[in-house]
Design goal:
FAD/NAD(P)-binding domain; FAD/NAD-bd_sf; electron-transferring-flavoprotein dehydrogenase activity; 5-stranded parallel sheet; flavin adenine dinucleotide binding; alpha/beta; elongated; FAD; 2 domains
């Protein structure tokens, strides 16, 4: 994939919707192959959201998690909000009225969720960084903090706060008994629980917050009362919600009907082509592939999608994507900033993870995608 495509690509143009891990991986490969493309995203910078929660507790860290798209992709980047995909005329319409024609379309819209775990809004780099700096101030001002949601994001948030500010009271409320994502090994999920307890995080498991919709999120207050469905009340100065992650289908939902899965993801075949459309690919979280939703998998999807675009151009057989039983938990190391704890988790995962799992430094991973 490293050499340029030795054929006339004048009539070929690829539009990539979404500049997350999958989108930038696809764009980088197309750029290296000298295949014309445009990458579209509502933000002006790539956000390494794997490190977003560290940026929520450490001042100055957020600027390391954003990289300008235009610096890397220059005129091949458009900042804009996709309002329509015209399948008949093969165009992507932006909110400002610009229409981008495509011979091939890669949908990489990712997932959406609550800040600070996700930052999905029209913004520039300075505004985005300031949002995280403001979050750091809220955390620093609060002595008692409640984290709602015990998936990987919630676990990471609680661990980041308690590691950076061990004197603060941190309570994690989760509706299930087991913490972190269900795709992880049971022994890993148990170790996560034990590490949080050793750090001093208070755990309320099998309880659901019943008044979340009226709670002020990400804002320091003198007193906030968090209530659960079992009658438990927790007093806090700050509430951070780390739940409600869902597929970001806004850009394409109106264009695709029968191709939508129940969660809004796009049904794809083994080549990652959207069902019924040989020139449209879905990668990352918005692809209905039965495997954990991870940045690592999104980059693998990008490899297959770009390879198949090239193969289509050259009239060669397409490459199938085969979801593996292995996963790369490199993102999971962010839950545990201490080297000793990272090494312990790595020992548990030994034999289960692929080579990429040793890439502990999230920022280096971010930059490697832009090479």
């Amino acid at each position: 994939m490293g050499s340029q495509v030795s054929m006339d690509v004048g009539a070929v143009h690829v539009v990539i919707v979404g500049g997350g891990f999958g989108g930038i991986a696809a764009a980088s490969q197309l750029q290296a192959l000298n295949i014309p493309f445009v990458l579209v995203d509502m933000k002006d910078s790539f956000h390494h959201n794997v490190a977003a929660l560290r940026a929520s507790v450490e001042s100055g860290f957020a600027k390391k998690t954003f990289i300008s798209y235009s610096v890397t992709f220059k005129e091949n980047f458009r900042q804009g909000l996709v309002v329509e995909i015209d399948l008949k005329n093969q165009t992507v319409l932006l909110e400002d009225g610009e229409a981008l024609s495509f011979a091939y379309l890669i949908l990489a819209t990712g997932s959406t969720g609550l800040f600070p775990g996700k930052f999905n809004q029209v913004s520039n780099q300075q505004m985005a960084i300031q949002a995280y700096e403001d979050m750091v101030t809220q955390v620093q001002s609060s002595q008692s903090i409640v984290v709602v949601g015990g998936g990987s994001a919630g676990v990471e948030m609680a661990a980041e706060i308690k590691t950076e500010y061990p004197e603060k009271e941190v309570t994690l409320i989760h509706s299930q008994m087991a913490l972190a994502d269900k795709e992880l090994l049971p022994c890993v999920r148990q170790e996560v629980k034990e590490i949080l307890l050793r750090k001093g995080v208070q755990l309320l498991l099998s309880e659901r917050v019943s008044n979340l919709e009226v709670l002020p999120l990400n804002e320091h207050r003198e007193r906030i009362t968090v209530r659960t469905d079992k009658g438990t009340e927790v007093a806090a100065n700050l509430v951070i919600a780390c739940s409600g992650i869902k597929v970001n289908s806004v850009a394409y939902r109106s264009a695709f009907g029968d191709q939508l899965a129940s969660d809004g993801a796009l049904k794809v075949n083994e080549y990652l082509q959207v069902e019924g459309y040989s020139h449209i690919y879905a990668i990352g979280d918005c692809a209905d592939v039965r495997e954990p939703k991870m940045a690592y998998h999104a980059s693998l999807h990008a490899n297959v999608a770009v390879a198949n675009i090239v193969n289509s151009m050259k009239q060669r057989p397409l490459k199938a994507y085969k979801p593996g039983s292995q996963q790369s938990p490199s993102h999971f190391f962010a839950l545990f900033p201490c080297k000793k704890e990272k090494e312990k988790i790595l020992r548990i995962l030994k034999g289960f993870c692929v080579r990429e799992c040793v890439k502990v430094n999230a920022i280096n991973l971010k930059r490697s995608l832009f090479v």
